[in-house]
Design brief:
By secondary structure, this protein is α/β, with parallel strands linked by helices. Strands 5-4-3-6-7-9-8-10 form an eight-stranded mixed β-sheet, sandwiched between helices. The chain has a two-stranded antiparallel ribbon with strand order 1-2. Strand 3, helix 6 and strand 4 form a beta-alpha-beta unit. It is globular, with a radius of gyration of 18 Å. About 35% of the residues are buried.
Length: about 260
């Protein structure tokens, strides 16, 4: 992982060089619509407060969990014992990104959703809340963390979420064998170069022209930046959107030329 100081410098550079997030200077109608109707959708949907209520409970939850960490691990809390509130403070995506994922699924009408890295289930809930007609399959390596997430889903009365527990290297290929297509995937479970590229290639096999792959923490480390650059150069990719903390990948053949956008968010 980059040091906090280096990430801060990178973010400052991103902030002052990215497109301003209002669509000025954007030539692609698709990207312009994304900015106008998704990125800048200011509606406060009812689900937001409900799901943020779960986050508030997790932040004060002092239950101690045993963690099996198959990824790059926590940069904040070391060891295989962690309190729920520590996981909540160090691992959960800020509300603005969960709510953005909610809007992406809603606007593009994603039906078959995959998430690699359930954690406590807050982001999963955003993915599932946009429409109860979709199906979210979420993968979590730590059994006791998955149990807390499942409890949250039950409390929210979500019946469109399935948790698959275990190492992604084992569970994801098995799932994909029986999956017809993926409309959206959020990859947030292993912040290393080779596993990220491996998951990209696996998910790509089930991607369609309208699929969206979202990668978390693309500037988290040198490895993740290298993985993101390789993904951007893949011949199947026609459009990418870099929002600094997450990156979106599209495969639309309607895109007249390959485009890589960096947009302030």
């Amino acid at each position: 992982m980059y040091s906090l100081a280096k990430i801060s410098l990178k973010f400052i550079k991103y902030f002052f060089t990215a497109l301003n997030g209002k669509g000025h200077g954007v030539h692609s109608p698709f990207v312009f619509d994304f900015i106008k109707y998704v990125l800048n959708d200011k509606i406060k949907y009812e689900a937001y407060d409900t799901i943020e209520g779960v986050r508030k409970k997790m932040i004060v939850d002092e239950r101690l969990l045993t963690i099996q960490d198959f990824g790059a691990g926590s940069t904040v809390v070391k060891g295989n014992k962690r309190k729920v509130n520590s996981i909540a403070k160090s691992s959960l995506k800020p509300a603005k990104y969960g709510q953005l994922l909610f809007r992406i699924v809603q606007y593009y009408e994603g039906k078959n959703i995959v998430e690699l890295g359930t954690s406590l289930g807050v982001t999963t809930a955003y993915l599932a809340a946009s429409t109860k007609s979709n199906t979210v399959t979420t993968f979590e390596g730590a059994d006791e963390v998955a149990a807390v997430a499942l409890q949250n889903f039950n409390n929210l009365q979500f019946n469109n979420i399935e948790i698959i527990k275990g190492n992604f290297d084992d569970t994801l290929p098995k799932f994909l064998q029986s999956s017809s297509k993926i409309d959206l995937a959020f990859v947030d479970g292993n912040h290393r170069k080779q596993p990220t590229l491996q998951y990209f290639e696996m998910l790509l096999e089930k991607a369609t022209n309208n699929s969206i792959l979202v990668f978390d923490d693309i500037h988290w480390s040198k490895e993740m930046e290298e993985a993101w650059e390789i993904i951007c150069r893949h011949p199947s990719v026609t459009l990418t959107i870099d929002l600094f903390f997450i990156g979106l990948v599209f495969f639309r053949k309607e895109q007249k030329k390959v485009q890589h956008c960096v947009i302030r968010f």
